[in-house]
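Students often ask why we bother encoding 3D structure as a string. The short answer is that it lets us treat folding as translation between two languages. Here is a chain of 655 residues written in the first language.
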Amino acid sequence: MDKALKSRFRQIDLGHIKPLGWLKKQLELQMEGLTGHLDEVWHSVAANSAWLGGDGEDWERGPYYCDGLVPLAYILGEDWLVNKAEKWVNSVLLSQNSEGFFGPKSNSDWWPRMVMLKALMSYYEPTKDYRVIKFMLNYFRYELSRLQSKPLENWAWARGFENLISVFWLYDRVKEPFLIDLAQVILSQSINWSELFKKFPYHEKTEEYLPKDFMAKVKCYSGWSKVLSNPQELCLTKQEVEELFFIYHTTHVVNVAMALKEPAMRYQIEHEDNYREIALKAIDDLMRYHGQPNGMFSGDEHLNGRVTTQGTELCAVVEMMYSLENLFRVFGERKFADHLEKVAYNALPATIRPKFCAHQYDQQVNQVLCNVQKRDWYNNNDDSNIFGLEPNFGCCTANMHQGWPKLVKNLFMMAQSDTFVTVAYAPCVLNYSWQDGNQCQIVEETDYPFDDEVILSIFTTKDIRIMIRIPSWSKSTLVAFNAQRREVSGESFVLLEIPKGKSKVNLRFNFDLETVPWSDHTIYLQRGPLVYSLRIDEEWKKIRTIGQFGDFEVYPKSDWNYALIPSDGIRVVKMTAPCDEVPFYSQAVPIKVQLKAFKVPEWTMRNGSADDPPLVREDRIKFATIDTVELVPYGCTALRITEFPYVKEGGFSHE
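And here it is in the second language, the structure alphabet:
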């Protein structure tokens, strides 16, 4: 068998790409906020964590936290944050026994170790600490020897492909054949998500396949383990319970977001071209049946349809980003990078406070009230959409930190040894050195996604090439390279030959403001990767203080129940205020949209949420009071309306 891992692009080691401008400020706010100080206020990652040798939390929360803390620390290079990250890394490395097992002895689950291995990857890439290579080799030999007697189960069974991330990473560095054998065993013991995605079965809300009353019984019986071992207690056969358990895992929103990368993992060792189409179809189906305008799909905690009353878990947002980064790396398909930008620049900032001091468990695209109240979630708690330290459950508190740092790492990739690829656009600098001593620097200056111009200043000591990704929503793109100017339309990538010395590439994208049909009577607005939402005045109420952080409810202080009139009067207004002070901040938006609208009094709230947008007949305009409303980037909002009823389509004018 060919042991080569097939992938169109390869990632650049962490630390070679540094953020600039607004993106650097975003990561600094994250450092100054919960990522830098979570261990000071949250017991799950405090000094008594079992991953630090204590008697505290011993499952996934420590590894989740490290999966964001470690890359953030080495990207920013702040000594105090690096020291905090290295405390975890050294504790984990020293925990390995002679057999190769590592981590808390009180928990032997395969799953949390899959996550911690990714944190060790992030540590090794900038430090080249060879302890990590030896550690992983020992662990993977141990894992291969034990999987027959202790196979993957529960979350590890549902997420086995996550194990392959670190297995393949190590194989690329040491080329040990047993690692491919291990990968095949892991896949054989995991859910075959590619087969599921070929004919995606969940077209309705999860309740249609896994009734809420059954889930309540599972909870009463202390979880799935007891039900699986004693199915007769629920008057079911073992096969029936196992089928329901399969549905539970394959509708779980975080599992699904993670699993989108599974076809890419299989492709790397099986080399079958159909896996690319499987991955594309999986995303299309999820958006068709459960999609939301912010680029995500609903899941509160399980897939819950397209209606605006439903929420999307923050863990799913960052895991979706990580899946899209890996899908683009393996398949080189522009659609994955487009989708990555949409999720990163809308869903991610919207569900975390601008200064990274609080987050939601569930966000809603039409979110007009964030408080402790029963909503139409599938099985999440009443506090799931407040902003706080640990709303609903602590997995997102631990896991949210990976989103921005991993985006930075993946802003550029490489196609060949001398070919760089632009993946997502944001202000950054790439410094790269080859083993022969040649060097290259690419400085990317831009306010993207708030602006549509990107400048690449390049210095290289040898000839290189750059593959420029052209976003699908750019109707035409001007590529100016030194003295050459080229208009591009319909192409996914433009390949530029860059001579040694200094060069400059100017990209000017052409983003139209689009009205995107969502249901038969609703639309949302998008320009470039940014989705736009109605600005709603907010009143924040602190309901709990936790050190320098806290829990907050948010109440609306202005009307929200508008129907839009997309007409020739619509205006896109770019603001002169800098966007790098506090990015995605509702009080200083760098771009906004103004258009005509009128109130729809019958559109009211239901169970704490804006009810589904009503059908509004066009003749309502004759009797309505017409207002001008402002829409701002979705990621700048805590309260918002994103999916609107509308009465008429028209053209647009821009300023």
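Translate back mentally: Residues 649-655 have pLDDT under 50 and may be disordered. Keep this in mind for the problem set.
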